[in-house]
Amino acid sequence: MTAKLELVEVSKSFRSKQVLKKLSLEVEDGEFLVILGPSGMGKSTLLRSIVGIEPVDGGKVLVDGEDVTNRPANKRNIAMVFQNYALYPTMSVYKNIAFPLKMAGYTRDKIDKKVREIAETLKITEALSQNVTTLSGGQKQRVALARALVRDPKLFLLDEPLSNLDARVRYAARQELKTLQRELGHTFVYVTHDQAEAQTLADRVAVLHNGNIEQIGTYEDLYEHPGTEWLGDFLGDYPMNFINGSLVGKDGYNVGFRTNWISEGKAGLKSEVELCQATDVGYFVSCTIDGKPIVVQTSRKYKIGAEVKFSLERFNLYKDGKLEEGTTE
Ligand SMILES: Nc1ncnc2c1ncn2[C@@H]1O[C@H](COP(=O)(O)OP(=O)(O)OP(=O)(O)O)[C@@H](O)[C@H]1O
Ligand SMILES: [Mg+2]
Known about the structure:
Blueprint lengths: L4 E10 L2 E11 L4 E5 L6 H9 L6 E6 L2 E2 L10 E4 L11 H11 L4 H14 L15 H13 L5 E5 L7 H18 L2 E6 L2 H7 L2 E6 L2 E6 L1 H6 L4 H6 L6 E4 L9 E4 L4 E11 L2 E5 L2 E8 L2 E7 L8 E6 L2 E5 L2 E7 L1
Parallel strand pairs: 3-8, 3-9, 6-7, 7-8
Antiparallel strand pairs: 1-2, 1-4, 4-5, 9-10, 11-12, 12-18, 13-17, 14-15, 15-16, 18-19
Helix pairs in contact: 2-3, 2-4
């Protein structure tokens, strides 16, 4: 079972603090949508509003075109995996997974069949009789996923489910999750502040900023054509560089360019190297141009204090913080 999700001008405040401001969003049936945003931006609040445990102040939540805004959480058929997993600590793995089915009034045989099936899919059959407190972080995460998936929900919401895992396990879990979503074909709304997760998991990424979706699209599109200077700064391992347009003959604009949108050694812009970091993909040189911090990717190593020269191969033009013209080469 899968579904399309639609949010129409959803607003939510806590006392005087407005967290969601008329936020609208459409998630396609079977899509893996990642909601990316800095800490405290309202990502969890958004998921809690969709699942129905946080009443909204205004706007609508539609699942397959049906208005569920005033429906209680247990009548929405939406499952959520919480960041801390929220497993029942006194119960076994089996009982944790069986719990939502028991609540829904399934027969014993049906419960047993479904629990074993999902345990097999998530490779936790061996742990079924174990108490959840004895599990590793990775296993707990699987149990939380199994418990959410077992009911065959229409929509599947995940709140930073991998953030408690160490880097190696997280990497493997990411791949498994992506495969699982493809196989099941479920609609996933996945919240994270981790850009690498957004990049590897998402069909589309929606970036949350100041209570609204700043931009939605593929990661590549957002990375290459951030619609605002804020997003260019936020997205990517390195912020987009911005310089005054008059430096390259584009008066009245801010010129934005990624670290590798340059041609090294050609005159045009020059500065003094402040730092040169070696990485797997070359060197990252930090310098200052017209009072702005700039980072460019180079193929050779520079000494601190040496001169670095480059010209721009491509750039985006921004006016009043907004993208006016896409990549110009
Ligand atoms: N129950 C609540 N009562 C009052 N304020 C709240 C409540 N829940 C969230 N907030 C506030 O709303 C804002 C958004 O919180 P939320 O937890 O949704 O952010 P987040 O993007 O999930 O952050 P993080 O990345 O740290 O998990 C924060 O300023 C938070 O303090
Ligand atoms: Mg959160």
